[in-house]
Amino acid sequence: MIEMTDGVTAAGESIDGSVWNILGQTYVPKQVTEDSFSWHATFPPGTFVPPHIHPNQDEFIYVLDGRFDLVLGGSEANATNGDLIRLPRGKPHGIFNKTETPVTCFFWVTPTGKLYDLFQQIHNVPDPEEVVRLAGLHEVDFLPPPE
After folding, report:
1. What is d(CA 137, CA 36) in angstroms, rounded to the nearest whole number?
2. What is the tens place of the pLDDT at every residue in 37-75?
3. How much is the pLDDT for 24?
4. What whole-number distance in Å separates Cα of residue 38 and Cα of residue 57?
5. CATH architecture of the domain with residue range 20-139
6. H, E, C per residue of 73-93
7. DSSP letter string, 31-89
8. Is the separation of the CB atoms in 33 and 59 below 8 Å?
9. What is the DSSP code (8-state) at residue 138?
């Protein structure tokens, strides 16, 4: 069991020195225990996470700067500075930066499940198909593209 310690994870720093490149996005882990995992993320223009499901986790995204276009269930939405995106476990969702500027945000999931381990494994993996395969082994199920 990973115990949470008190303290401050400073801006630009991570809990363990890790900074992950996930298909062009930058993830900086800020906190991890069995109960929860959080990270700061930067989505450059044109990057996205296609529709997927976390069957065992609730996920939250607080938008610090920029605009996300979202697919939530079967509906479309958007979120900008100061908005909180709520993604209940078992519900399909996709996150897209369709703008010309980066989006910065803060993610957290509860419980952590296998997500921290997944990010370690897909860091610098350039092949989206391999990312999808590894995700399926770590309790994240990507959905087929729409027809």
Report:
1. 19
2. 999 999 999 999 999 999 999 999 999 999 999 999 889
3. 96
4. 13
5. Sandwich (2.60)
6. CCEEEEEECCCEEEECCCCCE
7. EE-SS-EEEEEEE-TT-EEEEEE-TT-EEEEEEEESEEEEEETTEEEEEETT-EEEE-T
8. no
9. T
**Which of 115, 123, 96 has its CA nearest to residue 26?**
123
What pLDDT does residue 146 have?
66
Count the Cβ atoms, other than its own, within 10 Å of residue 145.
7
What is the per-residue pLDDT for 5? 86
Residue in 72, 74, 100 with CA at minimum distance from that of residue 88: 72
Average pLDDT taken over every residue of the chain: 95
Domain segments of the chain as ranges:
20-139
Is the model's pTM score more than 0.85?
A: yes
